[in-house]
Amino acid sequence: MNNILLINRINPKDYTGNKVKVFFLIGEINNASIKQNLMDLLDDSRVVDKSEIVYKYNGVELGILVQSIPIILKLLADSNISVYGVYAIYNP
What we know:
Blueprint lengths: L6 E2 L10 E8 L5 H13 L8 E4 L2 E7 L3 H10 L4 E7 L3
Antiparallel strand pairs: 1-5, 2-4, 2-5, 3-4
């Protein structure tokens, strides 16, 4: 069976102010300390609203502005959290 992922293209020139659902594929999120570190980091950040965070078995989905993606990636990298992909979730 094929592994199919339905995603939207992310337009880096999107300055509309509209939030999009962006999924971050996180390495070893099943490790309790990594998941707790991720949760603490996102809860304390001013970039994402707590109500816009959905933790999944292999990553986290955030309702954020497109222009916030690099900021989130820097926060994750600075906290030694491995990111293996960033996707805008397909929502028909």
